Amino acid sequence: MRIKLLGALLALAIVPGPVLAAAEGHQQEHGGQIFHAFRLEADSGIGNNDSVSSWDFDGWIGTDENKLWLKSEGERVSNETEQAEFWALYSRNIDTFWDAQIGLRHDIEPNHLTYLAAGFEGLAPYFFETEAHLFLSEDGDVTLRLRQENDFLLTQRLILQPYAEINFSAQHVPEQDLGAGINAAEIGLQTRYEITRVFVPYLDIRYERKLGETSAIAQSEGEENDAFIAALGLRLLF
């Protein structure tokens, strides 16, 4: 085994430099370079007189055409985790600025549940960053999530980002207190100041509301069906 390994290393050592350079250039020309980009946002604030903190992580590693996409987001209210989910997706470029994605999403809160996730992510007209994903749970329930956001530059460093998210369920899911139809929506505005490209403090103001049957279920159980949240946070790019 050692002799074979030494032989392989020797073979690589004597390959002419121009041959290696040509092979590397051919790989780069056809999108074979490996890149990565990751973003983490974490904030803390107040919502309906309760302390609220949240995190939002996403990023990818791969080539121009094929990527491994990782995501996680969650929210804690009064030091208790109310939402926590983790994603791993294969992402394939199918058109300019658009990727098709498929993979798994696993929730820890409010229930331990795994979903098959499939959807699209890309840049819609007028520079709206768009995410649309369909989820099939291990129990056979189907849900849908759509999110859009856009950046408006007030200066080269001061940026406004309005965003909106809507969630839909194809059926009533008693275990999760979800009603059929549109069950939750969120709109918000993030104002951030780029001290550097990788270190960005921000102010996030958002309104969350349960809708339809889900709202009625929450009220019948004595829970609030909406929340107005103001939080200070930090965005890191790496």
Q: Helicity, in percent?
A: 10-25%
Topology as a string of helices (H) and strands (E): HHEEEEEEEEEEEEHE
Mean model confidence by pLDDT: 89
Give the class from helix and strand content and strand pairing: mainly beta
Give the low-pLDDT segments.
1-30
Shape: globular
For the largest beta-sheet, the strand count, sense and barrel status come to: 12 strands, antiparallel, barrel
Feature tags:
mainly beta; 12-stranded antiparallel barrel; disordered N terminus; about 240 residues; single chain; 13 strands; globular; 3 helices
Walk me through this protein's architecture.
This protein has 238 residues and is mainly beta. Helix content is 14%, strand content 62%. It has three helices and 13 strands, in the order H-H-E-E-E-E-E-E-E-E-E-E-E-E-H-E. The chain has a twelve-stranded antiparallel β-barrel. The chain is globular. Residues 1-30 have low confidence and may be disordered.
Layout of helices and strands:
Elements: H1 2-13, H2 17-29, E1 35-47, E2 50-62, E3 66-77, E4 80-95, E5 98-109, E6 113-124, E7 128-137, E8 142-149, E9 152-153, E10 158-169, E11 181-193, E12 199-210, H3 212-220, E13 226-237
Antiparallel strand pairs: 1-2, 1-13, 2-3, 3-4, 4-5, 5-6, 6-7, 7-8, 8-10, 9-10, 10-11, 11-12, 12-13
